[in-house]
Each structure stands twice: as C-alpha cells, then as structure tokens.
Design brief:
With 401 residues, this protein is α/β, with parallel strands linked by helices. Helices cover 33% and strands 16% of the residues. The protein folds into 2 domains: 131 residues, Cobalamin-binding domain (Rossmann fold, 3-Layer(aba) Sandwich), CATH 3.40.50.280; 178 residues, TIM Barrel. The protein contains 13 helices and 14 strands. Strands 3-1-4-5-6-7 form a 6-stranded parallel β-sheet, sandwiched between helices. Helix 1 crosses helix 5, helix 8 packs antiparallel against helix 9 and helix 9 runs parallel beside helix 10. It binds cobalamin and iron/sulfur cluster (SF4).
C-alpha cells in the first residue's frame, strides 16, 4: 500500500515557480510505517493513474480554483481502487460538495498536520469516516515540511510559513474562515531551521506563505488598551516582538537570500516594521489594495484600508522604505467595478475565478451567513476560470481596444 499526494492542475509545465507547501507538510504528517508518499504536483507533471494500486490512499488538496481538476483526479484514483481523501481550503469550506462531486471516500476539514495520519490509518483498516475535522492546530504543532522529498531544480522559489490566520474578515477572503482570526505564529527557531535546509538545497528565493505577515496593527493594540484588556495587550505585544525577532534573524542570513510575503496596508503606518523588513531582505509583499473608493472598501469589509490620496501615501511608504508592493485588487462587488473592468474581463480570464463570499451578520460577529457558492452555477459543464462567450457585447471601457 502506498500513499499518494496530488496537487491538481489542468496544466503541467515541467517547471514551476513556488513549491506547493501543503504537499511537503502532508508528506511530513504521513506516518513512517507507510513509507515516503509519492508526490504528484500537477503543475510539473500530470498524475499517471497506472501508478495507483488498489488499496492505495490518494490525498488530494484543493482550493476553489483547482477543485474541478481535483474531482477528475479523484475519479481516476477511485476507478483504480484507491481510497480517495480530499483536504485543503475548498474541502474545509465545502466537504459535502467534495463528497458529492469528487468521487471521495473522505473530506478533511481544517489543518492536515495531525488528522492526516488518522485518516490514512482508518482507510487502511477499511472504515474511514466521511468527514474529519483537523481543526486549527496550534503553531507549535505545525509540521515542518519534508524538503528532502523535493524534486531537484523543479521550482524557483520555496515556501515557508511563519504565521497562519488573519484577524480581519474581508468578504472575498477564505483565510479568516479557514485559518481563523487568531494569528498562530511559529517560533523563529523552526522557521530558520527550514530556511537553512532550503538554502543548502540551493534556494535563494523564499516566499513566506503567510496569510498576513503583519498580524497585529497599532489600531489592534490601541483598541485592546481602550478595552482595558491587559492580557490581550500583552499577547499583541508579544506577537509583535516575535516578528521583530524573526526579521532580525533573517537579516543575519547570507546576503543572497531574498524573501517575499503578503501583508496588509496597515504595515505602512509602522516605519520600524518596514525598516526591519528591508533589513531582513523581505524585498516585497503582496498588499491587498482591493478597492480604491471608500464605498468599495466598505462593501468588502476592508475599510481599514485607505482610498484616494491617503492610499497613495501608504503605498509610497512601502516604496520609500525599500519594500516593493505587488498590489492586489478585487473586482466583484458592484461598487468596486469601474468602467475598465469590462475590458479586464476580456483580457484576464482568471478574473472569472468565482470565489466564495463570506459575511458577518451580527455585530458580535458570531452569527454568520452561509458562504455563497458562485461556482455552483458553472458546475459541472463549465471549467472554473474558462472564458465565457461575450455574446457580441461591446466593452464600455473608454480605453480603446
Ligand atoms: C502562499 C499562497 C499563494 C502563493 C503560493 C502558491 C504555491 N505554489 O504554494 C501564490 C502567491 C502564488 C498564490 C496564488 C494564488 N492564490 Co493563494 N494563497 C497562498 C496562501 C497565503 C498560503 C498557502 C499555503 O502555502 N499555506 C500553507 C499550507 C501548509 O497550508 P494549506 O495549503 O492550507 O494546507 C493545510 C490544510 O489546508 C490541509 N490540507 C491541504 N491540502 C490537503 C490535502 C489533504 C489530503 C489533507 C488531508 C489536508 C490538506 O493541511 C495543510 C496543513 O495543515 C493561501 C492562504 C491560506 N491560508 O491557505 C492563499 C490562498 C490559497 N490563495 C488564494 C487564491 C485565490 C490564489 C489565486 C487564485 C490568486 C489569484 N487571483 O491569482 C492564485 C492561484 C494560484 C494557483 N494556480 O494555485 C485563496 C484561495 C481561496 C479559495 N477559496 O480557494 C487563498 C485561500 C487566499 C485567500 N485570500 O482566500 N497563493
Ligand atoms: S486582510 Fe488579507 S488575509 Fe486578512 S481577511 Fe482580509 S484579505 Fe484575508
């Protein structure tokens, strides 16, 4: 019996940009008694179903964008007589859909670090449950990835995670629903261990695969102080201190190391933080600009961001402090759409990737509306991300074609 891990992708290029971290974390979580798993990253090479034997366990990790290919992989694996287990963001949010459309025996919700071993063992015994919930494991239980299993020279960047979870609740984002709003931050020791190992393997570029590298803002600290919540303040300050400690240690690494991360715009208010990022050679960050008007920001629950001139100032602060910005925008809600969106829709098919939308319905934030399932309209006949016919409609964008 062998364990397979499959990262589904419609297109395989033979080479890829960033290592899909989950594959190597789940490899580490695979119990030794089953041997090293066979890893299939379909962005490199498609799964060869003939390599799957009856009784094997096939773990498939899906986010919304690759779920359809994931379901195809599940079908192929099941036809070969394997146990088919799904996990990842999409399985966490929609386990019933996975069971319905993915030829699945099992859908795993939440973190796989601990539950994966149980799911495999139950499959081998022949009595798996339909759904397992791996929950949100605490940072000290995150599995460091099995980088020793990486194929040689296949990836340009490696990926190391330093923190999971984000305190915000933007409506277009799955992170706060799946990873939670409480930052779970790894200690700098374990992060550095992985980075040193990756450097020895030849990597000089590392993506810090974090939900939000700036998990505590000045506003968060001020609010906790105003609430008189000393414990919360102390916790926030400790998280902040650990960030600085990590960046100081990254700065001590050889000068040819380069990092990139994802961060909220709030970091622009914190010049010492940006300076520490620069010293740590965190060369740039994906910053969620999302919308450029106050109404648009409000609609997607991102009104902690800035619009107009203030937005310009914030983005400048990153540049002036040596951190490049990769701006990310969201075009879905009506108030965010500008006249150019029609044009963009024509030229960027990826914009059509329908993602779940989440809303908080009560002030306390506890009672939440069920997430929407926009892609259900396109199942099963249309592929997510495929171009839709324009039906001869003309784009109303003032920019000439
Ligand atoms: C780093 C990252 C990227 C990087 C790196 C990609 C790479 N090669 O790894 C880049 C910048 C390239 C990227 C691109 C995109 N991303 Co991205 N990305 C992330 C981020 C921040 C971290 C992912 C990560 O490595 N986490 C670390 C690993 C260890 O965690 P994990 O994947 O969650 O896996 C754990 C569990 O889910 C579970 N698990 C996972 N798989 C399996 C399988 C089995 C069998 C089991 C049992 C368990 C299990 O166990 C793991 C360990 O606990 C996530 C946010 C997030 N929290 O996931 C967004 C995220 C996955 N991205 C997202 C999106 C939308 C995109 C893009 C479509 C953006 C765009 N418009 O272009 C592209 C798609 C690229 C593609 N074709 O895949 C969304 C997906 C939303 C959704 N509902 O699907 C997320 C969730 C962010 C968000 N704001 O919502 N991304
Ligand atoms: S700030 Fe970023 S990671 Fe956090 S909920 Fe909003 S979009 Fe998601």
């Amino acid at each position: 019996m062998r364990v397979h891990l499959v990262n589904p992708s419609d297109m395989a290029f033979g080479t890829a940009v960033i290592t899909p971290r989950w594959l190597y974390v789940l490899a580490a979580a695979t119990p030794e008694e089953f041997g090293d798993p066979i890893i299939w990253d379909e962005t490199l090479e498609h799964l060869d179903p003939s390599k799957i034997e009856p009784g094997d366990v096939v773990g498939i990790g899906v986010h919304t964008g690759n779920a359809l290919r994931g379901y195809e992989v599940g079908r192929l694996a099941r036809e070969r007589g394997a146990w088919v287990v799904y996990g990842g963001i999409h399985s966490t949010l929609y386990p019933e859909e996975i069971l319905e459309l993915g030829s699945a025996h099992v859908a795993v919700k939440g973190d796989g670090d601990q539950i994966w071993a149980k799911a495999i063992r139950d499959c081998v015994k022949g009595s798996p449950e339909r759904i397992y919930d791996g929950g949100k494991v605490s940072a000290e239980h995150f599995m460091p990835a099995r980088w020793d299993l990486l194929p040689k020279d296949a990836y340009m960047w490696a990926s190391v995670q330093t923190v999971r979870g984000c305190p915000k609740h933007c409506s277009f984002c799955s992170v706060w629903r799946t990873d939670g709003q409480k930052p779970r931050q790894r200690t700098s020791d374990v992060i550095l261990d992985e980075i040193v190992q990756l450097r020895r393997l030849g990597f000089r570029f590392i993506a810090l695969a974090d939900d939000n590298f700036y998990p505590v803002s000045f506003t968060d600290i001020k609010l906790a102080e105003r609430q008189g919540n000393a414990e919360k303040v102390a916790n926030y300050l400790a998280i902040r201190e650990e960030r600085f400690e990590l960046m100081a240690r990254l700065a001590e690494l050889p000068g040819d190391m380069n990092f990139f991360t994802q961060i909220t715009m709030e970091a622009a208010e914190d010049i010492p933080f940006l300076a520490a990022m620069k010293k740590a050679r965190i060369r740039g960050a994906l910053v969620g600009v999302e919308a450029v008007t106050p109404e648009g920001l409000k609609e997607v629950y991102k009104d902690f961001n800035y619009a107009g001139e203030e937005l310009v100032e914030r983005l400048k602060a990153f540049r002036e402090n040596g951190v490049h910005v990769l701006g990310s925008f969201i075009f879905g809600p009506a108030s965010v759409q500008g006249p150019c969106v029609n044009l963009l829709k024509k030229v960027l098919p990826l914009i059509r990737l329908p993602l779940p939308r989440f809303e908080r319905t009560s002030k306390s934030g506890r009672k939440r509306r069920a997430p929407t399932r926009p892609w259900s309209k396109v199942f099963p006949s249309l592929a997510i991300g495929s171009s839709r016919p324009t039906n001869g409609r003309r784009c109303s964008c003032p920019i000439p074609p």
